[in-house]
Design brief:
By secondary structure, the chain is mainly alpha-helical. The protein has helices at about 1-20, 25-60, 65-80, 90-100, 105-120, 130-140, 150-155, 165-195. The longest helix is centred in the first third of the chain and has 38 residues, at about 25-60.
């Protein structure tokens, strides 16, 4: 679906540029953007490699396990239907920690593994469980203590103070995460009161 949308947008841009006599400008912009994209990817590669490596070191050193235990009360509250000793708790915790550090790319593998495990707990149903929906909401709202990606982007584009976004970013993501958790919790309660088993609760 996304491929189709991107195709339509590109085609529409080319058609508009042709009719307005700016097809040359569109071609120049496409070339310049391609160069900029490669430069940005190289810059981000270093940042992501460093933080992904730190996450792997933390996991091997047992820090992820320790953080998982520290997050256990929060995980029990957010995901009451998941067994306390299930491996999915580790994946969820690692995903949340990576997101808090602003490492969306590093968080993705853990998020996918968590969803796979929750699907098994959901008996392979094609309808998302309440826990799966809650996990998705938390990922979308994504509380960020250190928005590493944004800081790297701002630095790449010449920001005088790349880290000045930290305070406002923390407030914005704190509010969005709180709203998401409240919504997920309320919808779970509504679903239970309605007598349904919880699939697609939020």
């Amino acid at each position: 679906m996304l491929n189709k949308l991107w195709g339509i947008m590109l085609l529409a841009g080319i058609v508009v540029a042709a009719f307005t006599g700016k097809i040359g400008d569109a071609g120049t912009a496409a070339i310049d953007s391609s160069k900029e994209a490669v430069t940005l990817c190289i810059a981000m590669l270093g940042v992501m490699s460093m933080w992904t490596g730190i996450m792997n070191v933390a996991k091997r050193a047992g820090l992820i396990d320790a953080m998982t235990k520290a997050l256990r009360p929060a995980l029990r509250f957010l995901f009451p239907d998941i067994p306390a000793d299930h491996v999915v708790n580790e994946y969820i915790a690692a995903n949340m920690i990576a997101n808090m550090l602003g490492l969306g790319w590093a968080a993705t593998p853990y998020g996918l593994k968590a969803m796979e495990q929750m699907k098994e707990l959901n008996e392979g149903s094609h309808i998302a469980s309440a826990d799966m929906c809650t996990f998705l909401i938390i990922n979308i709202s994504s509380l960020q203590l250190i928005p590493v990606n944004i800081i790297a982007y701002r630095s790449q584009y010449g920001s005088v103070s790349p880290t000045s976004i930290i305070g406002m970013g923390l407030i914005a993501t704190l509010v969005s995460t709180a709203v998401g958790i409240i919504f997920a919790t309320l919808m779970r309660k509504v679903q239970k009161k309605s007598g349904n088993r919880g699939d697609g609760a939020v």
